[in-house]
Amino acid sequence: IQGFTTWSKRDFNQFIKANEKYGRDDIENIAKEVEGKTPEEVMEYSTVFWERCSELQDIDRIMAQIDRGEAKIQRRASIKKALDAKMARYRAPFHQLRIAYGTNKGKNYTEEEDRFLVCMLHKLGFDKENVYEELRAAVRSAPQFRFDWFIKSRTAMELQRRCNTLITLIERENQELEEKERAEKKKRAPRGLSGSLGGTPGGMAMGGTKSAQKRKGENLSTPENKSGRKKKKV
């Protein structure tokens, strides 16, 4: 970008990669990735870049790169939210957590294995670098699996694939629960509304008993109510 003569091609590439990695708004982390530049310099450069990036010759390729990175960031946030919501439904998830398999149970992994994978992935931090290597180490050292050759012999990549499947099932379950909750709220709302209006045309609540109607009539026709108080004020 013209006007930034101290910025080399290398600085520019580091800036673009950092935008892809952290998203365009995370200037603090972007600045850490651009060597030799202060956060203030990176912020100034970023402002001009986004104002004038359409002038760049290969902007379509650059934007596609950044958009892909930001989509990954959003996906990670969505998965974290789904796992947090799932875990919050149990007091002791390592013992109580259940997977809503539907017709996708699969033949190889047991529910105990799946439960451990989900809980440990959440505990380690699923978006942590090398998390599946750590998960594999946790599986191999877990006492409940010491004779379970199948789970202990899985590679980090195989565990990642299984976790991806389990995350999809959890997201589907969360969505179904949210939809059910919304439907129940909808059902409750009209009932409460009609109750408060007395269920009569025009929304007026008519007294339910003869005595109530009588009292109402007395209140309306009592002279003190109509004129007595006004006379006292005068």
Automatic annotation (TrEMBL):
Q: Where is the composition biased (Gly residues)?
A: 195-206
Entries under InterPro entries matching the protein: Homeodomain-like_sf, SANT/Myb, SANT_dom, SLIDE
* SANT domain segment(s): 2-54
Where in or outside the cell it occurs: the entry states: Nucleus
Name of the protein described by the UniProt record: SANT domain-containing protein
- Spell out the Pfam families in the cross-references: SLIDE
Q: Which UniProt keywords apply?
A: Nucleus
**Which residue stretches belong to region Disordered?**
176-234
